[in-house]
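Fresh eyes needed here. Kindly weigh in on this sequence plus structure tokens:
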Amino acid sequence: MQAAKALDESVLDNEDMTPRPSVLLFDLGGVLVDFSGVEDLRPLLPEVLDDEALLARWAACPHSLAYGAGQLTTDEFVPLFLRDWRIALEPAVFRTAWQGWVRGWLPGAAALIQELRPQYRLAALSNSNAAHWEQLARLGMLDAFDLALGSHELGVRKPDPDIYRQALRRLAVPAAEVSFFDDSAANVDAARGLGLQAVQVDGPDAVRRHLEAATLI
């Protein structure tokens, strides 16, 4: 009787435990990838904006949002963006500069991925666009993942719940088996709402600290 009770308690304890993830799903910019974003945009602008105003305008830019959802081609997007922000550059010059906003891995990211690869399936889910995705591919960074998904390919951006549903379908695993890392609180909250183990982080070191604290590495 006591053995049966102990077994029942053990089962309950296991049910209460968070499942060990089989997939680690990463946002890219700000988590693993050095993306300059507004840092490189600021010197191109005709007016001076403080950080709060610049970030708010960036987040609400309609043509950037449409481009990131795959609703505009790069050739369509560039002149619209230049007009929106009153940037005095030729489209071809800006397009080259825009791609260069993807700079490479953040310090420690490549080593972390190398360490995780034998233990987990690794995937990426990023609010991106055709030009930046092309740069990521050119740098060989997408090859680090078993599956890499960009918002421009899926037709929807985080934190829309549909982007997570599409990712889960492609991964073919339950939400509870996915640990998701993003630097946006809104994106993390949306992922948690669908049952993913979602964590807000600000770079590879924060990812590593979480995994070590959870005894996942």
